[in-house]
Amino acid sequence: MIETFTFPQFSPDRSVVHVGLYTNIKNAAGLRKRIIGAAGMQGEEGDREREAVNFAFVDARLITSRLHLQTAIYQAILAESQNALRTRTVHSEVLWALNPTHNITEALRRYGVSETTTALFVVRIGGSVVPDIQDTMDAAVAGTLQSLNSMERLTDWAAIKEYYKLNDEGALRKPKDEKKVVDNIVISSVAMKSVMQ
C-alpha cells in the first residue's frame, strides 16, 4: 500500500516519491532518537544509518488531505532544485513546508516524529521506483501499513486550526463543510509559504 507519486518536471534524481502511511507506531521514541543520532554519526556507519532513516517522517494527525501532503513534498523538491533549502535535507524541508511559521525547530517538533506519535507518513524522495521500498520503510518503522485513503480518520482538525490560527477565521463561521475549508486554507498556505517570506 505504498503509493508512488511522480513529478516529471523535476530532475530524474528527484522526480519519484514513495509514501507509506503507518499506524499503531510502536517505536516512535526509538525512531526519533535514531534520527537524531544518525545526523551526528561519522564514517561508513553514519552513512548507513542516515540512509536507513532517509525519509520525511510526518505526523499523520496534522495532514488534512493527500493534496496537502503532496503540496509540501512538491515545495520541498522545488526548494532543493533552486538551491533554496532552509533545512539540511529535502526530507526535513517537507516538515518545514507544512509548518505555518518559518521556525525550523518548531516545524521538526510539530510535524516530525515525537515520543507520542501513533501514526506517520513515511516519505522517500528519490529518482526511481524502488522495488524494495516497503521493506526499507518497514525496517525503520514498527507499525501497521495502511492505505493512504484512511488518512482522514487520523486528522486532528482542532490541532490544525490551532497551529494555523484558524479559530477566529471568518471563513469558518458556519461553513457547510468546515473540513474542506480548512483543507483549502492549509494547502494554500503551504503552496504560498516560500513566496511569503
TrEMBL record:
Gene3D superfamilies: CGI121/TPRKB. It comes from Hypsizygus marmoreus. Belongs to the CGI121/TPRKB family. Pfam families: CGI-121. It comes from the Eukaryota. It is found in: Nucleus. PANTHER family: CGI-121 FAMILY MEMBER, EKC_KEOPS COMPLEX SUBUNIT TPRKB. Component of the EKC/KEOPS complex that is required for the formation of a threonylcarbamoyl group on adenosine at position 37 (t(6)A37) in tRNAs that read codons beginning with adenine. The complex is probably involved in the transfer of the threonylcarbamoyl moiety of threonylcarbamoyl-AMP (TC-AMP) to the N6 group of A37. CGI121 acts as an allosteric effector that regulates the t(6)A activity of the complex. The EKC/KEOPS complex also promotes both telomere uncapping and telomere elongation. The complex is required for efficient recruitment of transcriptional coactivators. Its main location: nucleus. This is EKC/KEOPS complex subunit CGI121. GO terms for cellular component: cytosol; EKC/KEOPS complex; nucleus. Keywords: Nucleus, tRNA processing.
